[in-house]
Design goal:
- The complex is a heterodimer.
- Chain A is mostly helical.
- Chain A is 78% helix and 0% strand.
- Chain A is built from 10 helices and no strands.
- In chain A, α3 crosses α9 and α6 packs antiparallel against α8.
- The longest helix of chain A is centred in the C-terminal third of the chain and has 38 residues.
- Chain B is of the alpha/beta class.
- Chain B is 36% helix and 24% strand.
- In chain B, α2 crosses α3 and α5 packs antiparallel against α8.
- The radius of gyration of chain B is 19 Å and the shape is globular.
- The chains are: A mainly alpha, B alpha/beta.
Amino acid sequence: MGWLNRPLRQGNTWLLGLLPILVLVVVYLVVAADRHAINPNDKILPLPGAMADAMGRLLFERDRLSGEYLFWSDTFASLQRLSLGLSISTLSALIVGLLLGVLPRFRATFGMLVTCIAVVPPIALLPILFIVFGLGETAKVALIVIGIAPFMVRDIAEHVTALPREQIVKARTLGASTWQLMLRVALPQAMPRLIQALRLSLGPAWVFLISAEAIASDVGLGYRIFLVRRYLAMDVILPYVFWIAILAATIDLLLRLSGRRLFPWAYGETA
Amino acid sequence: MSAALSLRNVWVEYGDKVVLERINLEIEEGAFVSVVGPSGAGKSSLLKLVLGQIAPTKGAILLDGDPMAPECTPERGVVFQRYSVFSHLTALGNTLFGLECAQAPLTGRLFGERFRSAKDKAREMLEAVGLGDSLNLYPAQMSGGMQQRLAIAQALIKQPRILLLDEPFGALDPGIRADMHALITELWREYALTIIMVTHDIKEAFSLGTRVLTLDKTRVDPQAQNRYGATVVYDLTLDRKIAREAEIAYASGKTDAAANDQGITIDRINNN
């Protein structure tokens, strides 16, 4: 049997997936131990004990200045910004994408505008956002929205435009109005694609979140990482990065599972 | 028999290209009209015309004596070769769609008593096409034949004045195709439908239809191939009695035909 067809058991998939991660961890530990053997005060590759110490302070002790548990307030602030940005983007992608996809007149009027916005690098707009919205939460959420919404809008619009012409004609002969066509034919078929687009946008959304937090903020995962960078505090940066990876992977998994759950027809499953 | 659909000197042109010219047709109530002709002879254009997807460049189309709007309205049902059903709805949902659109303009969904009565109607329709056991299947879980049965049920529940079939059985296996022929003949008689079917299969055209139209070009300008369009070159009304006898013979000999169709040496599907 060739490599392509060799069957894989469920448990084995997990084990195989964990294998490279384990290898990376071992490599890190070996190199870190090596460096510490030469210089016990090495800050670049901290040992797990040092990381646990540093993180313990952020997790379980109140900050002397603000009186907050920094790790949790960072996580909360970042997730709040991210979810706001993602929700606004998703909603606008759905509405604008549907209109662009279904109504040729709307597409002719606004299609070019959406393309123009989509091709501008969002980070280039960040100064404008800071000037217009100030340094508060709005600018950070706005950056995420400007960064990912145009891509999602275009993706949904393309998907809806590509619905077979036969379906539209059929719906018309069954008496569907334009509104019913959007609500009952285009919208439900755009939903699985929307989840897909959202999953693909998660990466960029995190990039924009961390960038905005790095530049102007007083709380947040990105803010913390860029703050402690000044002290070469790799014992904080590495666990934070790992935490971001866990958060991002969890959101992705939840989206994937809810997609399968909510739209079984798109995955060839029974009701 | 009154004329349900009349085409009066209809022309279809796309820019310089003349696709159909001088189409004059009177299609009476209850007819089963098969349309055949070579590729590019405007079969699809004729169908789109009656469907309201395109408007005639010249001439008039009358439905029951009134000019027909160039829009796809519920007076016309349609079954395409593919993509006729909504992949996000179950068989029941697909069949309910037409009823829901008519009764719930804003939400497109029915609830309570009205939903139950619509559902009963839809289930009855699905049973009539032989999908009584597959109410909750999505199209992706159905075979090609089942999807076409569903497409027919979905169209018929709106009780269209005219049912348009665009090579509805072209993508099916010979055996399944024979079953579908029996089904459409039965439905045509039971619901007193007026059907226009475009097909590539001449045998199918004659065995199902009460009238066979052949479209082709009568004039060709070798310097400008698009100068002249196609028109009706043959209009054969199959005698109703003969047609019915043929049907009965067809229905009784169905099993034989199905068995024969599976043979590889007999070319019963004339793909020309």
